[in-house]
Amino acid sequence: MSTRESDHISSAQQTLEILFEMSELLNTQLDRETLATCVGMIEHGANPEALAAVIQELRRESSALNAQTTAAVGTR
């Protein structure tokens, strides 16, 4: 691997680390892997606002399913 490639990888890792720290400060509840996936999707043309809306909807659905599961277990 060339020095230039190493520098590029190092820069990308530093950028992702900074984004992750900002993500934690904003309490987004995104782990590093999910954040990296989102950044990659945005870099490939995904609309950031639409991506945020999808994440919010998935969280609402997950919360609703968890509540249903908890209620179902509680009635047994």
Automatic annotation (TrEMBL):
- List where in the cell it is found: Cytoplasm, Cytoskeleton, Microtubule organizing center
Name the UniProt key words of this record, in alphabetical order: Cytoplasm, Cytoskeleton
Tell me yes or no: is Ribonucleoprotein among this UniProt entry's keywords: no
What Pfam families does the record tag this protein with?
MOZART1
Q: Which superkingdom is the protein from?
A: Eukaryota
A cellular component term (GO) from this record?
spindle
InterPro entries from the entry? MZT1 (IPR022214)
Kindly list the biological process annotations in GO that this record carries.
Answer: gamma-tubulin complex localization; microtubule nucleation by interphase microtubule organizing center; mitotic spindle assembly
The protein's job, in short, is:
Required for gamma-tubulin complex recruitment to the microtubule organizing center (MTOC).
The entry's family comment says: Belongs to the MOZART1 family.
Q: What is this protein called?
A: Mitotic-spindle organizing protein 1
